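Our platform keeps sequence and structure together, in a single record for each protein. Nothing more is needed to write down the fold, since each code stands for a local backbone conformation. An entry from our holdings is shown next, in its original layout:
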Amino acid sequence: MNQARGHDQRFTPLGRARATRPQATAFERSYLGTMEQVREVCADMTAITHGCALSDDLVLIASELAANAIQHSRSGRPAGSFTVRVTLYPDDYAWVEVIDQGGEWTSDHRRHGLTALASIAGDGNWGIDGDEACHVAWFRLNLPHPHPGRAAAVE
């Protein structure tokens, strides 16, 4: 048995392990801090999540967080910006972050988008981290797993 060369049958070399699992899709883009850019976030999210069972939920929540970044942080000031990061792990989960330019919330209005986010993502699957310099609003949605029996029945 030669463990240094990966011949030990008890272990699967990392390269082979990755080959059996679908690769994650990652996306990151910065946007100007204007409300018109929420439309761009929606378009990008729609393209990224095409074919995903939860595409509508992902687009809705990401656009709500983008609007919050613009309305409630320094991202909405002239020359402001925010960033959206998305990682999709096929048949597992989606992770989305919206990073703004921090500051104190510029509005005392209730952020209704967070109510929708909490309802869709569920307890423990979303949050807002950061401080005066930067806020990161994030959420995780578990993706439905494919049902092997259903695929066989369709054929």
User: Anything to note?
Assistant: Residues 21-144 form a domain with the Heat Shock Protein 90 fold (CATH 3.30.565.10). Residues 1-19, 151-155 have pLDDT under 50 and may be disordered. The two ends are 44 Å apart (CA to CA). Residues 124 and 140 are 9 Å apart (CA to CA).
